[in-house]
Amino acid sequence: MNNKKSNEIYTKRLLLRKFQICDFEDYYDILKQEEVSMWLGTGKRKSLDDVIRIMKNFEKHWVENNYGVWAVTNRETNKLIGQCGFNILEDTKETELLYAFDSKFWGKGYATEASMAAIEFLYENFKLNHVVALVYPNNNRSSNVIKKIGFEYKGIEEHFGVELLYYKLKLDKSSFK
């Protein structure tokens, strides 16, 4: 069940909700993992200051756009296991899907489950016609998630000073069958 007013999304196993101050420590624990941070932005491990800046940017994006990046929690344990949501790329103004999960939870389908729910929420509430995803060329796990969701590979583009695989998902009713 998706609730636009509260900006919460429930899936079978997950709750996507806005980040809260109490998430900081767990979120920092996720982003300081080298195997996680190497695939994000510039690819460098995140510091405490980086995480503060990231969380402030998430909140700013929500205020300005009424959507953004959600904290992803396990519904059974209420434990923060990652992030999933959207950012607007500064250079192209396209809406980018982004996600990152604690490496302990990789390979369990959480990125796919959260991403599909987030994309459906975005389409239903904001009527965008497409979403993009940027993936490091050797990040096979992420490429597999993106392809499973239905994104099409469009080429290589430079973002954040890094060459990344550029994928695009056209959004229409057939995207959610």
TrEMBL record:
The UniProt record lists the keyword Transferase: yes
Domain N-acetyltransferase: 14-172
Transferase listed as a keyword: yes
InterPro entries linked to this entry: Acyl_CoA_acyltransferase, GNAT_dom, N-acetyltransferase
Keywords: Transferase
GO MF annotation list: acyltransferase activity, transferring groups other than amino-acyl groups
PANTHER family attached to this UniProt entry: GNAT FAMILY, PUTATIVE (AFU_ORTHOLOGUE AFUA_3G00765)-RELATED-RELATED, N-ACETYLTRANSFERASE DOMAIN-CONTAINING PROTEIN
Name of the molecule in the record: Acetyltransferase
